[in-house]
Design brief:
The structure holds 2 protein chains of 2 kinds. Chain A is an alpha/beta fold. Chain A contains 8 helices and 11 strands. Chain A has a single domain, classed as Aconitase, domain 4 (Alpha-Beta Barrel), CATH 3.20.19.10. Chain A is 30% helix and 21% strand. A 7-stranded mixed sheet of chain A has the order 6-3-2-1-7-8-9, sandwiched between helices. In chain A, strands 4-5 form a two-stranded antiparallel ribbon. Chain B is an alpha/beta fold. Chain B contains 15 helices and 19 strands. Iron/sulfur cluster (SF4) binds next to loops of chain B.
């Protein structure tokens, strides 16, 4: 897995909430049995017109976002289907990080990303960052104001630095386990297999028919 | 010390080890596999020269790509779909995984065949590369969807590394009114908490209205937990659960003496009276009306007696998001939901294509004709459901009403096979997702219960089935 330490790149914005994985990569592309070739199809239905040409009204097709590697969007990004193809598409398009706001609703904190999508990102070296809504609003405003806005993401320091007239920096929280995984680019399966003896021992006392300890 | 929740009891039983970083290494009792999310996982195993650790605990079928017409079923015309189905066949053979192939009597949507064959019973951990794995939680089991990297991880190790989710108890008090179903309960909940409201939680559904539901109806609720953001939904096992398991030939369920022993264990699973949940919510089931979605996510939902909302009046959604949804759906604010005219009615999916769903629909439409302008497709969730329906003569009721009676698969729930909506086509669907393009590019989906779909196919528009008779 590709490690993530610091990354600097162009920031693109997608002003929609609840972007589901059916939108990120539509069903017809799930038929592939390969792990590659999904970048072209990211946001397919929004990105291309009926004639197959780039849809000029779709935000990411704006020339100022060409080569963008950091995506800023709204709450509950990646909801719906568990398809990891969505993350492969995001990664293969060239994004390394996605920023979305958490929300305060009825006193509870609603995460910026859907669960399975966020998990799938970790497995593919994509960093998901949650900021507050006002902070994400600021990102949208700054990207709107300037052309080709760059940001640096420093995972170790847990900071997003926006390179505009006067640098703007935000701190973000992250699960330390996820952080460690990304920084070291760890392979989960190899790690778990180091505990093969524990798994074998567990199996000896575990009845998978009853899920009871025997 | 406080008692334990159903979730905690299962979690603790499956904890192989707590890792140094605090994550849990969780043992997986059943791994369900389908053709779409598994090929890259098997390929990963091959490249690393790793075997499947427990092929005996892995169960595969093909459902997403499968054509549902008799003529096309066995020879998939789309070469890419055919290649994906063939890849599953080859992978299962090479790695020794149980496969319910197209010609099997047990082929069907993975979440329908699990319970049907007794692969799903209480107290287990079940995963699948599919978000609607939450369905199986209806049995009092911890079941959740995973991505392809995790599918590979389970194939290789029979475990998953997980951080512990929080618990959320949703209590439905009272009894459901006539004509209102478990589909309406879950849509009501999602409307209330939003599509991200359950993120990070495992929901346990409880209360009188839940206890009164059949297993089929419980599966419908748990199925759509993911639509509220929760990875898993659970319902404590009870006599309804045990009767369902014992009622039919379920080859993988404990049998005879072993069943009795299992039941004794299952009875220890329900949450203790003094268990503490991280969050709780109560909904009065007797106040729930039939639900119909108007937008492009399942949280965009209203009572059938309501109108299409104005963009300013939808809690939890920005004006812009609502405007976009209404444009996509081709709806004017203020239009009564009952005046929305339909082109298609789809009865199917892992949410509502079990035998009980088909019986309910058949009971409503028996001896009637569909509205002339409506196309009706009925896709049983499994070949077993199809067989059972045919044994009961339900297929003939569908054919007499003017519906197409199909073979098992996901079909128009997501349209990976030839069953798709055309741009602008408006569909009442018993499935679970009304996302843009979900049932076909440009297609417009309204999620409803099977009963609401049945009434709609006769009338050609939505009706409030509480005070309607065919
Ligand atoms: S029926 Fe629909 S939701 Fe269920 S598994 Fe198939 S595609 Fe997914």
């Amino acid at each position: 897995m590709q490690a993530f330490q610091t990354h600097r790149g162009i920031v693109a914005t997608l002003d929609r909430a609840n972007v589901d994985t059916d939108q990120i990569i539509p069903k017809q592309f799930l038929k592939s049995i390969k792990r590659t070739g999904f970048g072209e199809s990211l946001f397919f239905d929004w990105r291309y017109g009926a004639d197959g040409k780039a849809n000029p009204d779709f935000e990411l097709n704006d020339p100022k976002f060409a080569g963008a590697s950091i995506l800023v969007t709204r709450n509950n990004f990646g909801c719906g289907s568990s398809r990891e193809h969505a993350v492969w598409a995001v990664a293969q398009y060239g994004f390394r990080a996605i920023i979305a706001p958490w929300q305060d609703r009825n006193g509870g904190r609603v995460p910026g990303f859907a669960d399975i999508f966020r998990n799938n990102c970790v497995k593919n070296g994509i960093l998901t960052i949650e900021l507050s809504e006002p902070e994400v609003d600021t990102l949208f405003e700054q990207v709107e104001r300037f052309k080709g806005v760059n940001a640096t993401i420093d995972l170790d320091e847990q900071r997003v630095i926006l390179h505009v007239d006067e640098e703007i920096a935000f701190h973000f929280d992250i699960d330390p386990v996820v952080k460690d995984h990304l920084i070291r680019g760890l392979d989960d399966i190899a790690l778990t297999l180091e505990y093969a003896n524990d798994i074998t021992a567990f199996e000896k006392t575990h009845d998978t028919q009853l899920a009871e300890t025997v | 010390m406080a008692g334990k929740t159903l979730f905690e009891k299962i979690w603790e039983r499956h904890l192989v080890k707590t890792m140094a970083d605090g994550t849990a290494l969780l043992y997986i009792d059943r791994h369900l596999v389908h053709e779409v999310t598994s090929p890259q996982a098997f390929e990963g195993l091959r490249m690393a020269k790793r075997p499947v650790r427990r092929p005996d605990l892995s169960f595969a079928t093909m459902d997403h790509n499968v054509p549902t017409t008799t003529a096309d079923r066995m020879t998939i015309r789309d070469p890419i779909s055919a290649a994906q189905v063939e890849a599953l066949r080859n992978n299962c053979k090479a790695f020794g995984v149980n496969l319910y192939d197209l010609q099997s009597d047990h082929q069907g949507i993975v979440h329908i065949i699990g319970p049907e064959m007794g692969i799903t019973v209480p107290g287990l951990t079940i995963v699948c590369g599919d978000s609607h794995t939450s369905t199986h939680g209806a049995f009092g089991t911890l079941a959740f969807g995973i991505g392809t990297s995790e599918v590979e991880h389970v194939l290789a190790t029979q475990t998953l590394r997980q951080t512990r989710p929080k618990t959320f108890r949703v209590e439905f008090t009272g009894r459901l009114p006539h004509g209102v179903t478990s589909k309406d309960m879950i849509l009501k909940l999602i409307g209330q908490i939003g599509t991200a409201g359950g993120t990070g939680y495992v929901i346990e559904y409880a209360g009188e209205a839940v206890r009164a539901l059949s297993m089929e109806a419980r599966m419908t609720i748990c199925n759509m937990s993911i639509e509220g953001g929760a990875r898993a939904g659970m319902i404590a096992p009870d006599d309804t659960t045990y009767e369902y398991i014992a009622a039919a030939d379920r080859p993988f369920a404990p049998q005879g003496e072993s069943f009795e022993r299992a039941r004794a264990y299952w009875q220890t699973l329900p949450s203790d009276a003094d268990a503490v949940f991280d969050r709780e919510l109560t909904i009065a089931a007797d106040q729930i009306a039939p639900q119909v979605t108007w937008g492009t996510n399942p949280g965009m939902v209203v009572d059938v007696t309501d109108c299409v909302p104005h963009p300013q009046e939808v809690p939890g959604h920005s004006v812009r998001d609502v405007e976009q949804a209404l444009t996509y759906m081709g709806l004017e604010p203020g239009t009564p939901m009952t005046e929305i005219k339909l082109d298609t009615v789809f009865i199917g999916s892992c949410t509502n294509a079990r035998i009980e769903d088909l019986r309910k629909v058949a009971g409503i439409i028996k001896g009637r004709r569909k509205a002339d302008h409506v196309r009706v497709i009925v896709v049983p969730g499994s070949q077993q459901v199809r067989k059972q329906a045919e044994a009961e003569g339900i297929d003939q009721i569908f054919e007499a009403v003017g519906a197409e009676w199909r073979h098992a698969g996901c079909s128009m729930c997501l349209g990976m096979n030839p069953d798709q909506l055309t741009p602008g086509e408006r569909c009442a669907s018993t499935s679970n997702r009304n996302f843009e393009g979900r049932q076909g590019k440009g297609g417009r989906t309204h999620l409803v219960s099977p009963e609401m779909a049945a009434a709609a196919l006769l009338e050609g528009h939505f009706v409030d089935i509480r005070n309607w008779s065919p």
